[in-house]
């Protein structure tokens, strides 16, 4: 902790907030304060914006290979410092060290992926149909960006946005979540070490998000917003982006259905459920929220899932053998408690878990509920906790209708051994991603994103860099 920066990163320098304000960073496993970091205000945001704007023209002209090599060096540094970064992430966010190490690898891969994409930005050439002009298409960076990242994957969500921005030639102001600023500050230090020019990345940690972000979005100099977070905040940011017509990409909330048909391999289904539900303690937008299980296998599926969930070890993420760390804070745990209580009041049966442990920290046990009423609040709320809510179904059309009966459409999971059904149901689900007989869909090489109120645009994959590029068409007379 002693080597982790705690100041703002503006114009390549580490600086205190202009008004001297700081904010505490808590350990969710103990409730104790880890450290204090600078708490940026509007003046700091303007300085960060000015640094990004000043650096944009020169950075846009930087050779793609140079941008690529900076990302590659940063990738190598992250890999070398896996344990250090994992411990930092576990301290501020709570996830077990095994998961934290996995996130470090996941985060690093975005830099490697976009280091390769940086040198593959292409355009086009054609003669127009009337034969009088040639069309030359080129692609150029959209300009200075505001990147807003969440607390649940503090390192990976940073690299997933920073990587394509650097590759495309965009400068940035990054605002991380106030619960987990340390991973972003460590990432800024790594990029500076890797040779990123001053002003290309600026990091403002703040508890005053509205005061910091709204003036940037309305001011006209920020040309791109990339946000990961709740749908409610996403709507607010979209409205703030409208005045200056800021280009936006958003990865918002989810309410993922997990469908188990009667012909499913239950070993695969339970394995998939453990990943889709328990990755990051259930604090993931891709987490399975609603388990629709065919009536003929629901009892066996529920028994197996409860057995696996009940065997998980809950405790501080730094302790050996721990599978499930604390939730992010008391508000997050309180929400989960209320959702479970509501479901039980409506007739749900608790197969395992369901009771908050005594003692310090924000822990909640892995919980399986069966016989969940479709009117329960957790059916139309992103749970963001280790709770699997099981409902039954009898008919394919019925389950597809119920799975799609939500304003969200990020990801869905389908378990069946029938190829025709697998393809048919996957194509009918109103989601941006489908896990077919698997509980994990995230991969830097794949386009991540949803439909409906789960967001706009895609991150990662071949298309991830497109969000940070504009086309320019040049007409050249023939002859």
Q: End-to-end distance, in Å? A: 66 Å
Rough shape? Answer: globular
Q: Which second-level CATH architecture of the largest domain applies?
A: 3-Layer(aba) Sandwich
Strand content: 15-25%
Q: Would you state the CATH class of the largest domain? A: Alpha Beta
Number of domains: 2
Number of discrete helical segments? 13
Question: How would you describe this structure to a colleague?
Answer:
It comes from Streptomyces neyagawaensis. GO terms for molecular function: oxidoreductase activity. Its EC number is 1.2.1.-. Keywords: Oxidoreductase. With 479 residues, the chain is an alpha/beta fold. The chain has two domains: 267 residues, Aldehyde Dehydrogenase, Chain A, domain 1 (3-Layer(aba) Sandwich), CATH 3.40.605; 188 residues, Aldehyde Dehydrogenase, Chain A, domain 2, CATH 3.40.309. 37% of the residues lie in helices and 21% in strands. Strands 14-15-16-13-12-18-19 form a seven-stranded mixed sheet, with helices on both faces. A six-stranded mixed sheet has the order 9-8-7-10-11-21, with helices on both faces. A three-stranded antiparallel sheet has the order 5-6-22, with no helix packed on it. The model has no long low-confidence stretch (mean pLDDT 97).
């Amino acid at each position: 902790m002693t080597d982790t920066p705690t100041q703002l990163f503006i114009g390549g320098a580490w600086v205190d907030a202009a008004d001297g304000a700081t904010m505490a960073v808590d350990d969710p496993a103990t409730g104790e304060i880890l450290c204090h970091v600078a708490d940026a205000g509007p003046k700091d945001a303007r300085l960060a914006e000015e640094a990004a704007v000043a650096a944009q023209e020169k950075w846009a002209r930087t050779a793609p290979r140079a941008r690529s090599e900076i990302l590659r060096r940063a990738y190598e540094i992250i890999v070398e410092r896996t344990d250090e970064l994992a411990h930092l992430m576990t301290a501020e966010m709570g996830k077990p060290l095994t998961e934290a190490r996995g996130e470090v690898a996941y985060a690093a891969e975005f830099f490697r992926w976009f280091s390769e994409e940086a040198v593959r930005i292409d355009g086009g050439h054609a003669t127009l149909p009337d034969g009088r002009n040639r069309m030359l298409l080129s692609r150029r960076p959209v300009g200075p960006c505001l990147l807003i990242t969440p607390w649940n994957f503090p390192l990976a969500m940073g690299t997933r946005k920073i990587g394509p921005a650097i590759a495309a030639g965009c400068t940035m102001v990054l605002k991380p979540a106030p619960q987990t600023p340390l991973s972003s500050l460590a990432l800024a230090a790594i990029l500076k070490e890797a040779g990123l020019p001053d002003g290309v990345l600026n990091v403002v940690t703040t508890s005053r998000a509205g005061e910091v972000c709204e003036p940037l979005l309305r001011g006209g100099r920020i040309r791109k917003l990339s946000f990961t977070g709740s749908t409610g905040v996403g709507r607010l940011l979209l409205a703030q982006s409208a005045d200056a017509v800021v280009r936006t990409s958003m990865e918002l909330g989810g309410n993922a259905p997990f469908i188990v048909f009667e012909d499913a391999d239950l070993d695969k289904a339970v394995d998939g459920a453990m990943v889709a539900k328990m990755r990051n303690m259930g604090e993931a937008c891709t987490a399975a929220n609603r388990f629709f299980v065919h009536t003929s296998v629901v009892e066996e599926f529920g028994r197996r899932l409860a057995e696996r969930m009940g065997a998980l070890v809950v405790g501080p993420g730094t302790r050996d053998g721990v599978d499930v760390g604390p939730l992010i804070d008391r508000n997050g745990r309180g929400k989960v408690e209320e959702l479970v209580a509501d479901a039980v009041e409506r007739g749900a049966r608790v197969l395992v878990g369901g009771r908050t442990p005594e003692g310090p920290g924000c822990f909640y046990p892995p919980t399986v509920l069966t016989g969940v009423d479709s009117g329960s609040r957790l059916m139309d709320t992103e749970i963001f906790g280790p709770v699997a809510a099981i409902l039954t179904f009898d008919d394919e059309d019925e389950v597809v209708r119920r799975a799609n009966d939500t304003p969200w459409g990020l990801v869905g999971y389908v378990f069946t051994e029938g190829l025709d059904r697998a393809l048919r149901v996957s194509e009918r689900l109103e989601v941006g991603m489908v896990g077919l007989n698997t509980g994990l869909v995230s991969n830097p090489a794949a386009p991540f994103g949803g439909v409906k109120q789960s967001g706009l645009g895609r991150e990662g994959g071949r298309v991830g860099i497109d969000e940070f590029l504009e086309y320019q068409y040049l007409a050249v007379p023939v002859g």
